[in-house]
């Protein structure tokens, strides 16, 4: 008897590997848009769980969350169709939250934030042990190219992790062609997002869609096949490096004396000499982490902000305070760098003259800097 189509087997194997540490009986949610990636993922998860149950082995319950972003006409119908496909695969429960995908940072960022918030809410309410996302190797490659175009550092270029918290991305090792082939082999009819195929000359299409439809195909044509896989491999290597640098930066921050101080005192006090003696790669990561600890929103601290903070450490000429996102100010005095919210009418330099604080470690900002 012939086995499943190779693409179907690859999806199922990827799902099985991603769920290896999820307790039997736990609920696993699939984030499904109805597109080929997430629909193939939903089918793979349903099969893996059902196969274990049919063999009498402890298995998982598999449900789905279909987020309606309400960004396109007919989005409600698309979401309903995706939900019906998930139910036909045997997934239960299937939820279809509608979200408000407006906010700062543009429509792509707002939609992403709203989607993850909806997934987090569903996972919390339903007690899910894992949420599966359908990102593929192609998505990873597109992210690397977008990061390079922005001049991003290693953390942003490291792309999406295979797992973080409840989120799992089983398909990062597979190509989009694999999910399309899996859907075709299984007789599934996925939805194809029209924004993923912008017309020639459509400069208003999302940047990721333009990279997907125009940039990557040109690279594959001019440089040969395998460009997407190579970019994804670079992301994996950069993630290993970024993780190591972040760990070393956390140790540096602890040595420099980062600490939460008493009420009315700065959130973070650092020994400037300790920071100055460190390599720039570690010092900059530690300074970004200190800013986040002091109250700056993760991801809001840009390269320019970090450069200004670094100047207080390595190019001290008596300059004034550095103002950071989240109404955080940083100032240097008496060899110490103080970061914290500065009350109106209070001189930020006064904070830097506060007494020494007890050391306490804090890991660098793991959100990267998408705006650099």
TrEMBL record:
Residues 340-372 are annotated as: Disordered. Residues 353-363 have a biased composition (Low complexity). The keyword ATP-binding applies. GO terms for molecular function: ATP binding; tRNA(Ile)-lysidine synthase activity. Its EC number is 6.3.4.19. The keyword Cell cycle does not apply. Ligates lysine onto the cytidine present at position 34 of the AUA codon-specific tRNA(Ile) that contains the anticodon CAU, in an ATP-dependent manner. Cytidine is converted to lysidine, thus changing the amino acid specificity of the tRNA from methionine to isoleucine. The N-terminal region contains the highly conserved SGGXDS motif, predicted to be a P-loop motif involved in ATP binding. It holds the Pfam family ATP_bind_3. Belongs to the tRNA(Ile)-lysidine synthase family. The gene is tilS. It catalyses: cytidine(34) in tRNA(Ile2) + L-lysine + ATP = lysidine(34) in tRNA(Ile2) + AMP + diphosphate + H(+). ATP binds at residues 33-38. It is found in: Cytoplasm. Keywords: ATP-binding, Cytoplasm, Ligase, Nucleotide-binding, tRNA processing. This is tRNA(Ile)-lysidine synthase. GO terms for cellular component: cytoplasm. Its main location: cytoplasm. GO terms for biological process: tRNA modification. SUPFAM superfamilies: Adenine nucleotide alpha hydrolases-like, MesJ substrate recognition domain-like. Residues 28-197 form the tRNA(Ile)-lysidine/2-thiocytidine synthase N-terminal domain.
């Amino acid at each position: 008897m012939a086995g499943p189509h190779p693409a179907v087997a690859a999806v199922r194997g990827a799902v099985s590997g991603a769920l290896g540490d999820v307790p039997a009986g736990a609920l696993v949610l699939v984030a499904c848009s109805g597109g080929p990636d997430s629909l193939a993922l939903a089918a793979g998860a349903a099969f893996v769980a059902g196969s274990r149950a049919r063999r009498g082995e402890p298995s998982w319950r598999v449900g789905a969350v279909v987020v309606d972003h309400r960004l396109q006409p007919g989005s409600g119908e698309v979401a309903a169709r995706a939900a019906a496909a998930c139910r036909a695969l045997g997934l239960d429960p299937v939820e279809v939250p509608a979200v408000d995908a407006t906010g700062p940072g543009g429509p792509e960022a707002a939609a992403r934030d709203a989607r993850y918030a909806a997934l987090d809410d569903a996972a919390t309410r339903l007690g899910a042990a894992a949420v599966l996302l359908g990102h593929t190797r192609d998505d990873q490659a597109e992210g690397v190219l977008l990061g390079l175009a922005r001049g991003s550092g290693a953390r942003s270029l490291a792309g999406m992790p295979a797992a973080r918290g409840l989120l799992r991305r089983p398909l990062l090792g597979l190509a989009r062609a694999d999910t399309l082939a899996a859907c075709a082999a299984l007789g599934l009819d996925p939805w194809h997002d029209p924004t993923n195929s912008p017309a020639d000359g459509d400069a208003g299409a999302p940047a990721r869609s333009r990279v997907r439809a125009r940039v990557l195909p040109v690279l594959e044509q001019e440089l040969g096949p395998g460009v997407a896989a190579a970019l994804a491999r670079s992301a994996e290597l950069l993630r290993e490096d970024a993780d190591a640098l972040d760990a070393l930066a956390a140790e540096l921050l602890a040595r420099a004396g980062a600490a939460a101080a008493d009420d009315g005192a700065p959130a973070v006090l650092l020994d400037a000499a300790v920071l100055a003696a460190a390599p720039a790669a570690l010092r900059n990561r530690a300074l970004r982490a200190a800013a986040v600890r002091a109250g700056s929103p993760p991801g809001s601290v840009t390269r320019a902000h970090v450069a200004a903070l670094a100047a207080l450490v390595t190019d001290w000429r008596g300059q004034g305070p550095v103002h950071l996102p989240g109404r955080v100010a940083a100032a240097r005095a008496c060899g110490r760098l103080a970061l914290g919210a500065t009350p109106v009418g209070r001189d930020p330099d006064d904070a830097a003259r506060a007494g020494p604080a007890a050391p306490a470690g804090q890991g660098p900002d793991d959100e990267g800097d998408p705006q650099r």
